[in-house]
Amino acid sequence: MKRHIKYLWLFLMLFAASANGAEKGQGGTGVSINDIRHFDIDENTIIKEDDQVIPEIRGQGGTGFKVRYRIENVNQDITGGTVQEINFINTHKGPVTSLDPFKIFNVDAQLTSDTFFDDGLIFEQIVVGDELKLSGFVDANSSLLVSRVEADDEPLTEWKLSGFVSGLSATQFNIQNQVVMIGSAAIDDCDIGLSNGLFVEIKATPDASFIPGSSLNTVTKIECKPEGIITLPGDVIPVALEGMVDSENIDASNSFTISGQQILVNASTVYVNGEVDDIVVGVKVEVEGLMNTTTSVIDAYKVKFKEVRFKFEEPVLPSEVNTGSFITLFGKNIYMTPQLRDEDGIMNSGLPAETQVEVRGYADSEGILYATRVRERGNPDALDVNVDGMVTAINNPEIEIFGVKVDTTSSLFLDINGQPITASQFFAQIDIGTELEVDDAVVNESTQVVSGGVIQIDENDDSSQINQPKQGVNEALGVGTITGRPDSIFSDGFE
Length: 495
Description:
It is a single chain. The model is unreliable at about 1-30, about 460-465 and about 485-495 (pLDDT under 50). The longest helix is centred in the first third of the chain and has 15 residues, at about 5-20. The chain is mainly beta and about 500 residues long. It is built from 4 helices and 39 strands. Among the domains are: about 235-305, CATH 2.40.50.140; about 305-375, CATH 2.40.50; about 380-465, CATH 2.40.50. The strands form 4 sheets. The chain has a 6-stranded mixed sheet, with no helix packed on it. Strands 19-20-21-24-23 form a 5-stranded mixed barrel.
């Protein structure tokens, strides 16, 4: 796996965001969240880090930080307005216990090429025992998808761990593989006390004796704090919520949850970078919608998959499964993630014989493929394979989907509405980045070239201009990731 940042490219991108993307407020500047939300900051904005008020945004503009924010004077698509309050969240602060796989405490943490390393830090400089501050999103198994890595110049004065309680007893519980000793820790905001399944934030005193596999024995505080939108009841309000899907029931109730917060979808919901079938446990999405603040239920009018999704299905040989690491389909290595669902045990135990396998997952910004679900699909059948994903090359009559070559000479073509079109119409309607579904195709197992089948254009509208009523309010709430750097250091006087 590549674990590096292209620093020149990153500097130029951040400089461009600084010069062109920031929006000036009165005496301040702005922040960009999830690339499309550009909000002003002024002298009245309250800026916090881990719930503590700070005078300014530090650390390269906060790039990569998970943030919780409240916006006033918001526009209708939640892409502009002024920040009333923004809270920069370190989800984990503590010791690295493993580099491969990467772990903080005894918890899995997934790095990708999209992870931002603060202040010139690179992965190769990190050693076991280093104390780091990580920001990102926690999945249902309490593993972390890391969006930001930071190392302080001074030793940490407080450790922090976030995740879901499991294995609770009178004296201890687990956050994934990390044993947490309750001891005399204060327990806050847990209405009925601790219970399995609660999302908690744990603070502890740094422990010089802590080693990989140790229990966390110096806990000072355990706080029940959901990752979703937090507000007071009594209204319907626009929201933009980023997070990991932790349950879904699309077929029965048209709903899924992010950290226990219910999201409803309907026939009008727009999907970007994926489709409704891609809503599975462990997937990272951003939801736009209207939240009933009494019930906390969000009616979604847009679901954007934060990584570009793919689905591959073909016969896989036992030798094409590198257990505990990656699986190879169509000649492409697809890497395991802590978020992986592997009900059939393929990635852990391998295959006894050639088997039809389906892999769903995502690609990062460098085109590295990651698996979020792997499962058996019956007997091997090279005459019935599928390749769904983004076009990465076009050379009529050939196309590539994440590098998988598809010869369309004998294919049937459908437009985005499922209507038949000609080959010339098809190639006129696609471009690099178009999403396609290739079904019922044939693969040459020697060359790994796919041919024939039915190819449908499945490109989704990424427009933010979805007119939704604001229900008479001019503020919005959100959880997201900082993706742009402000253009100056803020002046004094923020409260």
